[in-house]
Amino acid sequence: MEQWLDWPTEESNCISCVPPPEALQHDDGKFKVYGHDGEVLCSSCDPTIKPSSCCSPPAFEVQSSEAGEEDRNGSVTAGGVFKKLSWLDCLLPIWIIGAMALGILLGYFVPAVERAFNGVKIDEVSLPIAIGLWAMMWPVLTKVRYELLGGILSSRAIWSQLAISLVANWLLGPAVMVAFAWATLPDLPHYRAGVILVGLARCIAMVLLWNQLANGSPEYCAILVAVNSILQIILYAPLALFYLEVVSGGAGAAGGIHIGFWQVARSVLLFLGVPLVAGIITRYSLLAFIGEQRFEKNFMPYFGPVALLGLIYTIIVMFSLQGHQVIANIGDVCRVAVPMVLYFGLMFFGTLAVCWKLGTPYDQSVTQAFTASSNNFELAIAIAVGTFGIKSQEALAATIGPLIEVPVLLALVYVALALHKKWWGARSAA
Question: Are residues 191 and 232 in the same domain?
């Protein structure tokens, strides 16, 4: 039975890994990590990179395969992926489907629900809905490691990868979703607008999970999440106005619905800006009072699931108000899945192939791919509700997003792990 080779922690001396992999030696407390081709992947000469950031067990080390979680090449099997998922995450599609069904039943059999949810409003959004939207975003934005931004962005090596991410996320991603939305939903302008809103919302939540499962770089993923969190405050409103008003000729096009810049910007500030500030305050306050270890191990495991509860609660409310419309237009609702599936596939494989062609390491490549292909459906739902109303087709289309995204992106985790062995493994062997 093969075991992991000893690997240093942050507190211990770092090591120098030189080809062949077995040649492990201490180097006076300094460290360098080399790839199979002799390229220096990281070094203690760069103070912005912690030893634990790059001295992670490489692919050539082999863990015991008795449990069937990893094979001799380090590829994670189905059982290994699901063991990394919490039971809440494993059953997320079931929670979403159950919440939709419960909401529809409430809408049909408890008419008083609508009056209750619309009793008190904030910016034309009922207070109960606003609470659910904030609950979705607050824990997600508390997880973001904003403290890494300054140090990592000072490294020149990160800027080329960051440039690729910015192009994929803020130029190609929205344009691709708009193209697929028009190609597949030409006769459904309101649903099309909701799909476009999903394409504009860059992922800052679930991408952390997909990246972890696919053995991506956690530090690089944290940087992209932090950058996208900030850029969404700045870019979401102008991009929404451009793609819905200029490109699409009005948010509803044939439906004659038009939106203004402040209408979208107000929703962005209310449903992203407020939880962003709350997340930053929560993170830094608790890090100061209880420390990073207790924050990660004792607080976030209990606070993190609040986002899922907020999502489930919001879906129940939305479908309780849209139950009749969903049943009456079930065919149109199902069509919303088509542009999303096409988008997830093209953005994932396209980004991964480009990174592989450029010689980017696997852990950064897979982080790029999942960041480019997944979306922040919590924000899309919030903006659709705040801009078009809780009972709009735009909001309904945005709500379909997580039902499609979760199983598709989970399937792409397995694809990434398989391509790791086939593409990057073959390159290392060569």
Answer: yes
Which residue, among 238, 235, 269, 223, has the nearest Cα to 383 in the 3D structure? 269
Number of domains in the chain: 2
pLDDT, mean of residues 333-344: 92
Place 6 in a pLDDT band, splitting at 50, 70 and 90: very low
Q: SS3 for 249?
A: coil
Contact 97, 105 (CB under 8 A): no
Q: Report how far residue 404's alpha carbon sits from residue 82's, in angstroms, rounded to the nearest whole number.
A: 19
- Name the nearest CA neighbour of 196 among 166, 231, 165, 241: 241
Q: Which helix (H) or strand (E) holds 126?
A: strand 125-126
pLDDT reading at 87 higher than 80: no
pLDDT, tens digit (0-9, with 9 covering 90-100), for 360-406: 888 889 999 999 998 887 788 878 887 888 778 888 888 888 778 87
SS3 34: strand
Model pTM greater than 0.70?
Answer: no
CA distance 149 to 283: 15
416 in a domain, yes or no?
yes
Neighbour tally for 65: CB within 10 Å: 14
Residue 325, classed as helix, strand or coil, is: helix
CA separation, residue 294 to residues 285, 288, 289 (Å):
13, 11, 10
Closest CA to 221 of 274, 175, 169: 169
Beta-bridged to residue 352, according to DSSP, are: none
From residue 373, alpha-carbon distances to 1, 203, 328 in Å are 38, 8, 31
Residue 46: pLDDT over 60: no
How far are the Cα atoms of 118, 313, 338 from residue 100, in angstroms, in the given order?
19, 10, 19
* Cβ atoms of residues 401 and 341 within 8 Å: no
What pLDDT sits at residue 125? 65
Domain extent, residue 39, equals 1-61
Q: Sorting pLDDT into bands at 50, 70 and 90, what band is 63?
A: very low
Q: Is residue 180 part of a domain?
A: yes
Evaluate whether 79 touches 414 at the Cβ level (below 8 Å).
no
Closest CA to 117 of 105, 109, 128, 133: 128
Q: Do both 89 and 28 map to the same domain? A: no
* 151-170 residue pLDDT tens: 766 767 678 888 889 999 99
Which residue has 């490294």 as its token pair?
Answer: 155
Amino acid at 234: I
